Amino acid sequence: MGKFRYQFFLEAALELKANLAKEKIDLILLKDDENLAAKLKEICKAYEIEHTVTSYPRGVYEGNILGMLCELTAVFTCEDDNLVAMDELPFTELPKVFTPFRKEVEANLDVRDMTQDPLLKKFADSHAFSDTFELIKHPKHPNSAYPFTGGESAAHERLNYYIGESKAILEYKETRNELIGENYSSKLSAYLAVGNLSPVQVYYAIKGFENQVEKNDSTYWLLFELLWREYFMLVALQGQTDIYALKGIQNKGSKNYTNNIKKFEQWCTGNTEHPFINANMKELIATGYMSNRGRQNVASYLVHHLKVDWRWGATFFEKHLIDYDISLNWCNWMYVAGVGNNTRNKVFDPTLQQERYDPESAYCRLWNR
Ligand SMILES: Cc1cc2nc3c(=O)[nH]c(=O)nc-3n(C[C@H](O)[C@H](O)[C@H](O)COP(=O)(O)OP(=O)(O)OC[C@H]3O[C@@H](n4cnc5c(N)ncnc54)[C@H](O)[C@@H]3O)c2cc1C
């Protein structure tokens, strides 16, 4: 994990630990290292744990960790990070592209009520088991579009601000392709990724706003984007390890990549021949965030212009993005590389994109100093 991603995640985890402590519940934080299986075994034995309740694992390797637990306790999973439970989906086979998925889901959308707090068993103090984690507060870049702190309280603050207080959601459809500032898009991604917010909470915040204040194309569009999230989670789940394969889920011939290491390094550090690409990469490294417009452009540039294996780029994003999410990252990269859920292969021309989305070069000037 890059330093900003690590910091955001730890802020979120430590706030959860502090909130649970108020209820006299301890949160044991463990490092995912080669001793994990032994540590889990020790903890299950010490507390005589018979049942484990956990979120549904979205990635194959995360599922393997759950496999370790299955050998120790009975495991129950709950789907707490999606809008529609898998067995309530209105089809037996997942559509290969997004639009039919969206239309079917929208026509049948019945989002579950927000649930009560889960009933948690009160553990005694368990410090003996916790690994140590040091939270280093890296200074936030003054131009960061995502200067927020990880944690549930900050997540709700942002949700309330973006939807309620500022009403910025009313312009979302028009502003979502912008590049500078906190409010051109919701900036909820990292909170959704680490689990500080559930999409159900976001859904009801939008619906509440639509009922009480105003409903327009923009309020709808935020839900539309959440359905992309929903879709990619299912694609990743179905794709298993294929989402990490060069040929992706399409499993057909892939491009001829030349994988020039120097070109890849220039891309990573924001030193390519294109200022628009460079500005976006520099923003990512300096803040841990990049706009959706930027992500599409730098990914397309790496794959189609520099001819570097798309998975190198996806791995770089995995390290740096504070909102890194297995499904969203790998499925979006597959899409750009033409090995995912696409019907056509779109190549972005960075010069045209810059003219359109950064006509005064304000964004390029901000990051290419
Ligand atoms: C190559 C590439 C890699 C990406 N990797 C990630 C990632 O690791 N984690 C991540 O959260 N997003 C990823 N995205 C999607 C998107 O860029 C971010 O979700 C978005 O920029 C986050 O900012 P926001 O919360 O302000 O988004 P908003 O525009 O406000 O959107 C609201 C929410 O909708 C969902 N959403 C928006 N765009 C997409 C999309 N293209 N696909 C799926 N769901 C979407 C996200 O949950 C987002 O938080 C990636 C996109 C690309 C092109």
Order of H and E elements: HHEHEHHHHHHHHHHHHH
How does CATH name the architecture of one domain?
Orthogonal Bundle
Percent helix, as a range, is: 40-55%
CATH topology (level 3) name of one domain: DNA Cyclobutane Dipyrimidine Photolyase, subunit A, domain 3
Category by helix and strand content: mainly alpha
Whole-angstrom Rg: 21 Å
In terms of DSSP E residues, the strand content is under 5%
Number of strands: 2
| Straight-line N-to-C gap | 26 Å
Low confidence ranges:
119-124
- For the residues shown, what is the average pLDDT? 92
Give me the side-by-side strand order of the main sheet: 1-2
Oligomer: single chain
Overall shape: it is globular
> For the record, what CATH class of one domain applies?
Mainly Alpha
Main sheet specs: 2 strands, parallel
Number of helices: 16
Bound molecules: flavin-adenine dinucleotide
CATH superfamily of one domain: DNA Cyclobutane Dipyrimidine Photolyase, subunit A, domain 3
Tell me about this structure.
- This protein is mainly α.
- Among the domains are: 152-239, Alpha Horseshoe (Serine Threonine Protein Phosphatase 5, Tetratricopeptide repeat); 245-367, DNA Cyclobutane Dipyrimidine Photolyase, subunit A, domain 3 (Orthogonal Bundle).
- 50% of the residues lie in helices and 3% in strands.
- The protein has helices at residues 3-22, 36-46, 60-70, 98-107, 152-165, 172-175, 189-194, 199-212, 217-239, 261-269, 275-287, 292-305, 310-320, 326-337, 350-357, 362-367, and strands at 51-55, 74-78.
- It has a two-stranded parallel sheet with strand order 1-2.
- Helix 5 (152-165) runs parallel beside helix 8, helix 12 packs across helix 14 and helix 13 packs antiparallel against helix 14.
- The longest helix is centred in the middle third of the chain and has 23 residues, at 217-239.
- It starts with a helix and ends with a helix.
- The structure holds flavin-adenine dinucleotide.
- The site of flavin-adenine dinucleotide has 29 residues, from helix 7, helix 9, helix 12 and helix 14.
